[in-house]
Amino acid sequence: CNRSNSNRSFRLSISLLGAATVDSDYLYYDIALTANNTFMTDLGVTIGSPATIRVYASSADLSFTLYGIP
Known about the structure:
mainly beta
């Protein structure tokens, strides 16, 4: 969710075994999010354990929420 009056971008990656992020780990990379807008998706992925989910935001006024079923 972009809580700003300006455009922002984000990245989302999943790395197995907590490894450093490589290009193939990215599900979304520098996705533009217009001012005061929300991005929603249903990934439908199963993540094995252990895995690390990383989110990068171009600004502190982006919010990220992840829902899953254990």
